[in-house]
Amino acid sequence: xxxxxxxxLLLVPLVFITENLYAFTTWAGQFSFTESNQKTxxxxxxxxxxxxxxxxxxxxxxWGNIKNKTYESxxxxxxxxxxxxxxxxxxxxxxxxxxxxxxxxPGQIGYIENFGINCGNQKPNDIxxxxxxxxx
Length: 136
What we know:
Layout (H helix, E strand, L loop, with lengths): L2 E5 L8 E3 L2 E3 L6 E6 L11 E10 L2 E9 L6 E11 L6 E8 L10 E10 L7 E10 L1
Parallel strand pairs: 4-10
Antiparallel strand pairs: 1-4, 2-3, 5-6, 6-9, 7-8, 7-10
């Protein structure tokens, strides 16, 4: 499981690394991104890196990229975000989108830009993500 912390204002250089935990500190308003451990039939091993996140009009806006570090090509690459609030099982919103471009070859990058997760005006504590797709 990978975990990232992003600010709505600033991404500060890497502060510490522990096993499967990457943390970025911020000056204001933190969001954490955690890779989902739920299994699907379309799981692929591509790396999502959140670049920016901001809270605006009851939504979390997300920018990031998905990099293919393998020797295989993937098509229909998609990321699903689930925004979780305080308390056990408090799902605030879930949404999926395809990367741009949708097909990612070896060494290529797909982008997520200004993608909104509607959270019903409740700021989430954690944003879970899952990258899926198919071998080309």
